[in-house]
Amino acid sequence: VGGAWARPRTGSPGWHASCVLAALLGALGCLFTVKEFGDPDFSEWLSPGPGQPLLGDSGRMLMLEAGDGGVQSLLLGARAWLVEGTLLGLGSVGVLLAWGTSKEAQLMSAVLMPLEGFYYLINTIYFPIVNMPFACIPMLILGGGLVYLPMWRFSTFLRPKSGVQKSYFKYLCSLGALSLGVGLMMLVRSTKYRAEIDEFVAVRDHFLGNGMAWSKGRAYPDGFKVKRGKKKA
């Protein structure tokens, strides 16, 4: 590592501005790291009650989507909460390390931060599948920012030799190709799980329409009725 690049250019106004931008782009990921591993208990403990898009009863909505049997898990073919929580957690570590001044901290930040960025970019394929195309714009902003920013910081502040820089760009290209593959896989698998997706969309729309109320212990949001006509909540 020592001879691969010059001494990092940390401490400049541009460097501090990039650290602040990284924190702003990564704030949502830090919150969702805890939510993926801790909901619904975490959201209910931190801010109980209905009417909250991120906390409170919304923790149960997240687990319906990303839990072991949720639509995200079905489309991924894996436990979505574990995959997403891990990617967001590693990305959050990268955001925190962006403030470090050592070569090692800057390198790890450049390696880890894009993991969160590509996770958001995958969601630009996922959200239209579940009838939320409007969510693609913030995902593009967050994802694009968390991929481009560490790439820019890597070249500007770490000043690596050309061979190291090429290796880093190959790493980013590999992540991009893998993310595209995952997104396309979800798109293909969506035809197999169309019924489950439609049911999830119906539950989510009801949840948003009832004031985001989902009482603890109920299988569905308050007032939701399954198609069989049996009242479940």
Question: Which characteristics define this entry?
Answer:
233 residues, mainly alpha, 9 helices, 0% strand, elongated, disordered C terminus
Estimate the mean pLDDT confidence.
92
Structural class: mainly alpha
Main sheet record:
none
Distance between the termini: 58 Å
Count of DSSP strands: 0
**Which strand-content bin applies to the residues?**
under 5%
Give the overall silhouette: elongated
Low-confidence stretches: 229-233
Radius of gyration: 20 Å
Q: What's the helix count?
A: 9
Helix fraction bin: 55-70%
Pattern of helices and strands = HHHHHHHHH
Summed up:
The chain has 233 residues and is mainly α.
Helix and strand topology:
Layout lengths: L12 H26 L2 H6 L11 H9 L4 H6 L3 H18 L5 H27 L6 H23 L3 H28 L4 H16 L24
Helix pairs in contact: 1-5, 1-7, 5-6, 6-7, 6-8, 7-8
What features would you describe in this structure?
The protein has helices spanning 13-38, 41-46, 58-66, 71-76, 80-97, 103-129, 136-158, 162-189, 194-209. It has 233 residues and is mostly helical.
